[in-house]
Structure formats: C-alpha cells, structure tokens
Amino acid sequence: MAILGIPRQMLPRIVPSIDKNTWGHTLQEGPLGAAVPVCGALGDQQAALVGQTCFGVGEAKNTYGTGCFMLLNTGTQPIRSTHGLLTSVGYQISGEKPVYCLEGSIAVAGALVQWLRDNLGLIASASEVETLARSVDDNGGAYIVPAFSGLFAPYWRSDARGVITGLTRYVNKGHLARAVLEANAYQTLDIMEAMKKDSGVRLNSLKVDGGMVANELFMQIQSDLLNLPVIRPAITETTALGAAYAAGLAVGFWSSMADLKQYWSADKTWQPQMDDDARQAGIRNWKKAVQRTFDWVDGSG
After folding, report:
1. In the predicted model, is pLDDT for residue 301 greater than 80?
2. Of 37, 52, 79, 276, which is least packed with CB atoms within 10 Å of its CB?
C-alpha cells in the first residue's frame, strides 16, 4: 500500500471465510424475500475443498471443468512453493488459525474435449469422447499436450503451444480421443508430483469433482496414472456445497467441521490397475511431449 500510495481505508476489511460475526443481511424486499445473514465466503476452488471435506493435512481434491484445479490441504503453516504451485488460504474459521493449501491450475482440461468436438468434429457431444476412447485399448503412441495459450502449473511457460506427438499411420480417432483423456490425467500427475516435492506429502487418494468425473474411463485412467484410488463423491457440485457448509457453520447450523464429515459419501472409487512398467513408460513419453511444446513462441513473429 505504501509503494502504490493506496490508503488503507480504501480496501475491504479482511474477515474469516467462516465468520460468526454477520457481515450484513440480504434485503427483505430482495429476491430471497427474507433478511438472510451473510457470513460465509469462499473462493471457487476453496469452496470445493470444503465441500469435499478435505479438512486434514494431506487431503486433496481436483475439480475438472473447462480448466482443472487441484488443491492440497497443508495445515496452518503456509508452504512456499518452489515447484510452480500457488500458496493460498484454504479457509479460516473465526477465532482459529487460517488453513493453507497448495494449488495447481491447468488451463485446458474439459476445454480439450470441446476442441475435439468443435474444432476437429470427431465427436458430436462431449459425452461421446468416452465411447470413442473405449474403441481402442491404448493411445496408440499418441500424446496431446494442450498448451493452446501456454502451459500453467507447474511449468508456467507462456511460450509453449499445443502439440500432438507420436503420430503414425496406425493412429486413428479413437487413439486421439484416448490421448485427450490422458492429457488431463497426465497434467494432474504433474501437479501431484510438484505438491509432493513442495510438501513432502504423498497422497493416499484423490477426491474428484466437476463435469468430467461423469466419464468413468477417464476416472480409471486418472487412477492408473496417479497409482492412487480416485474417489467420486455422491454430490459432485462441491463448490456450491462448500459455500453452504461455510454459511451453516457460521450461523451454528453445524457446530464443527467434524459434523460435516458425516454428510460426505463416496459414489464410486477407482483403484489403479495399470502395470508399473507401462505407467512409467507413459510418463516418460508424456514428459518428452511436454518438452516439445517449449520455445514455440520466440518473439520472431
């Protein structure tokens, strides 16, 4: 504030995300038709973290939408990332210390399925990607790195551009569909590896949510490549759920975070089935493919 010449009174007051001191009420004559207390506020991905009840150190969730966002609970001590992740506040209950997290952001996740549909016309609807990918047993040696406007975490390379590598005459549209799903799973693996390096924590499982978790082949691929159980909750709209949890805790509808654990339940869990040699070979090829995206934009026009 001193450097930029900003008076403190111009900025909003910092408050806990779950605050027993009500900030105000909605208007009685407003769309809700009632004076509802406003006392909980969470960022999009932090709300999903709470909705997934990732309250313990080392618990993580991944949200697969147009982009993809993975958060790891690191407890009350912030961990400064040296491997390309963001350090942010997960949530804070009034009167308690803030809980921090490491966050990894992927620019293109579900958007890659949309690209397969809209730009290449290989599918008519997003849900068809699973059927097409199931028409083959593997990716046929093809890898897609969707660096359409650079790569986000953990690389942060604005000079990168998307590539499809490993093409031969054998590769067909089924292999490309499978490579699209694998691209999202490999990008998540990159973030998980960075989180392990930063925090020293190895995950025991990964809770997932967002639109792409309806794709059961993708969930199996994710479990295989992470070599971890992947758990889809009964309620996948975890962002809205987390915001509701925050408000309910603030007004005393629930008394503690522990109370919320009983409402979380798994819909389905995928266990890794891939041979480790195959997994490691795929990871090596993926990392080679990522390297091919670098230095494409060099400023020469």
Report:
1. no
2. 276
